[in-house]
Specification:
Blueprint: H1 3-26, H2 31-58, H3 64-87, H4 95-123
Helix pairs in contact: 1-2, 1-4, 2-3, 3-4
Length: about 120
């Protein structure tokens, strides 16, 4: 398995764990979990692949990959919000707010993992 494919798979698994965990905490039940997982299987690899491409071509020192990531994340919130509104029975927050809650939580958890990983590598 290529390193890129492995990284995309790890990212997807972590995102699914975070978003489905938060979804359960806010009261999502039943088939809605499957829809949330399937939608994430569609959007997550696209966002991560495009972000990785931006990092590859622009480098870590450039602001461009982070601007691209912000645009991708905003687009993901809207795309998933639209799909959640159409497909989910869960209506407590509406599709767009639920998408913002789930994507925000998985983004923050991902950033915490990056910070923890950097701290661990600095101490060893």
């Amino acid at each position: 398995m290529s390193a890129l494919l492995f990284a995309l798979l790890i990212s997807l698994c972590l995102t699914l764990a975070a978003e489905l965990g938060v979804a359960a905490l806010v009261g999502v039940r039943g088939w809605d979990f499957l829809f949330i997982a399937l939608i994430n299987c569609l959007t997550n690899p696209i966002v991560n692949y495009l972000y990785d491409l931006a990092l590859y071509f622009c480098g870590y020192g450039s602001a461009i990959p982070y601007i691209i990531l912000a645009v991708l994340e905003i687009g993901t919130v809207f795309a998933e919000g639209l799909l959640f509104s159409r497909l989910l029975r869960f209506r407590r927050f509406g599709g767009f707010r639920l998408s913002l809650i789930l994507n925000g939580s998985s983004f923050l958890i991902g950033e915490l993992i990056v910070v923890i990983r950097l701290l661990i590598t600095k101490t060893t």
